[in-house]
What we know:
Elements (H helix, E strand, L loop, with lengths): L37 H7 L2 H4 L3 H17 L5 H20 L12 H13 L12 H37 L4 E6 L2 E7 H26 L18 H7 L9 H6 L2 H27 L7 E2 L18 H24 L14 H24 L1 E2 L1 H9 L5 H10 L4 H18 L8 H7 L6 H5 L2 H6 L9 H16 L1
Antiparallel strand pairs: 1-2, 3-4
This protein binds arginine.
Amino acid sequence: MTDAPARGAASGGTHANGAASGGATPLWGGRFSAAPSGDLARFGASLEVDKRLWPFDIAGSKAHAQMLAAKGIISDADAEAIVSGLDAVGEEIASGAFTFDPTVDEDIHMAIERRLTELIGPAGGRLHTARSRNDQVALDARLFAKHAAGELAGEVRALMETLLSRAEAERETVLPGYTHLQPAQPVLLAHHLLAYFWMFSRDLTRLEAAAAAADASPLGAAALAGTTYPIDREMTASILGLSRVIENSLDAVSDRDFALDLIYAATVCMVHLSRLCEELVLWSSAEFGFVLMDDAHSTGSSIMPQKKNPDFAELVRGKTGRAVGDLVGLLTTLKGIPLAYDKDLQEDKEPLFDAVDTAANALSAVRGMVATMEIRTSRMAEAAGEGLMAATDLADYLVGKGLPFRDAHRVVGGLVAACVGAGKTLQELTLAELREASPLFDADALEWVKIENVVARRTSSGGTAPSAVEAQIAQARRRLAD
Length: 482
Ligand code: ARG
């Protein structure tokens, strides 16, 4: 960062363009004798990041111009020229015909206004009446956040639908349920998949709350204190489909809670996706073998021909770190800035966009993986079928015969130790062996430990018994119908 010219230095060229090290005249060139040097201009610019706000910037400016004309602040003719000029700029940007000029286009707001004035002349210079980039950028970011929250909510719904339909098809598939990643008690695969359904259902709620947080207009706050012009803030808000105006102009230009809310919602969603992906990585390993990832959703190795890697699941897990970073980054940026607008706030957009993009891409990748993975029900059944997972049920059996649970736990603990020593499963124990441990065991204990019975007994609401899962599927269907 070399040769930054001293602001207000008396000598030198006539205007910004005159400074040898400076760029072209910026929109605020009036009181300056030099523009920031190339390095500083690049450092201060946000165009490359905020370019994508253009549709929202154009919508906001059109609404503002319409309001200015309705209130007699600019003429109808000027407003019409501005609105059609902004449409023309929008078409240029959409078609790729727009040429950004990095020497003057510090951000997307300046680029659009610059081009508008080139196209329509002096009327373009009237657009910024009763407005500042401070309320303008806050508006654009809110419109973006509201839109993006809706898009993410759509992706989340689609994933919920995919999980639910796979769950509906796996009403009878049993697999081990784990705690500490040790086989604990058998569960239905439908039950396991629905656990994720409910996580994403909460993400949906959080995204809806984030959309509602963004849904307020800061326009009319101007730089920070409001404006002397007889504007109508409700009018611009309603043209833009925003449901309310922000009560305080200082808060309007400096509040980025809506961005935090959306990043938080996206980040929690990424954490859920990451946990699901971690299971897909484990389940697709040779050791588990519970699922076979679809070829189009995995990659091979450049050296080991036998490899099929769950790369995309790993990448979702890895990218979750970015989202967490986006959240912590913006929280940290915001924590120390005084009212009202400070340039620090320009740093809101990268984490906001990154969290949204990361979550959107991850959601669609995971939906593809879940939709296409082959479920190896026989491997799951084998892992769940015979073993030690009926131990709790065996203890419950003794409780049913009147033994205190602690004593029952000790009796079954002894049986488990015997099984481990003999390399046997609980299902392989004979009635004689059971009765040796406790005379309370009767012949029905042999049926009692069968895995399908272990699953079927957990009929408590929210439990894994087929009847309870059936009720849960109906609840999930209702949630999606909302
Ligand atoms: N690019 C700026 C941002 O994103 C726009 C607002 C600039 N306002 C200002 N007073 N410098 O925050």
